[in-house]
Amino acid sequence: MRTATISKEDIIKNAIIMIEKDDNLTFSKISRKMKITSQSLYNYFKNQKELEYAIVGTVISSACKIAQKRTFGRSGHDGVIYLSLTFRKMGVEHINLAQFVISHHRTNQYKIVNDAFNELKNLLDFMLESYVSTDKLLKASRLIRSMVVGDILNVGTGWFKSPEVRAESSFIEMLNLSLNALNNS
After folding, report:
1. Of 15, 98, 155, 181, which is most buried by a Cβ count within 10 Å?
2. Which among 178, 125, 180 is positioned nearest to 150, based on CA atoms?
3. Rounded CA gap, 107 and 110, in Å?
4. What is the pTM of this model?
């Protein structure tokens, strides 16, 4: 076993790699991969559930930072579309990780998760505020999250494979129609 110092970040990084490879995540598998004892993981996480939510918070926060950089300078309708496409693309490209994150129930039990969801909410609200009225902000935010998550799952799991219509173009069209209808209601 290894005697080098490890960190929470090292553990999360290795766990994410395992999830991306569709490997079953357990303390014993993580410890074997990192060449440490499984008991040493308890110095960083009180149980596997805490580790899993640390992964959820880390992934959401990282995705927000990437999306924020990619959408810098954009706003309004086009900004909302670009932001949605950015999250969709990341989710489809990392479908196992996206499914892992989506499968975890929203909880206020872990600060890292609360902070990450607040970061996501603030980013989405910022983009939407210049496009929809304040009274429609929550509905618009839910609409976008539902559409992005739904498309990630449908495309990532092979449900939207049709030679007649590209999945990305139908996503953009559905998002445009939905946002215009919401904005005009």
Report:
1. 15
2. 178
3. 7
4. 0.88
Q: How confident is the model at residue 4 (pLDDT cuts 50, 70, 90)?
A: low
The rounded distance, in Å, linking the Cα atoms of 131 and 180 is 10
Q: Which residues of 108-120 are buried (b: 16+ CB within 10 A; e: fewer)?
A: eebebbeebbebb
29 contact partners, CB below 8 Å, separation of at least 6? 18, 23
How far is Cα 178 from Cα 111, in angstroms, rounded to an integer? 33
Distance, C-alpha 159 to centroid of its chain: 20
Report phi then psi at 109, rounded to 5. Answer: -75, -25
Q: Nearest to residue 77, comparing CAs of 129, 123, 119?
A: 129
Task: Compute the distance between CA of residue 130 and CA of residue 50 in angstroms, rounded to an integer.
Answer: 37
Could you give the CA distance from residue 45 to residue 52 in angstroms, rounded to a whole number? 10
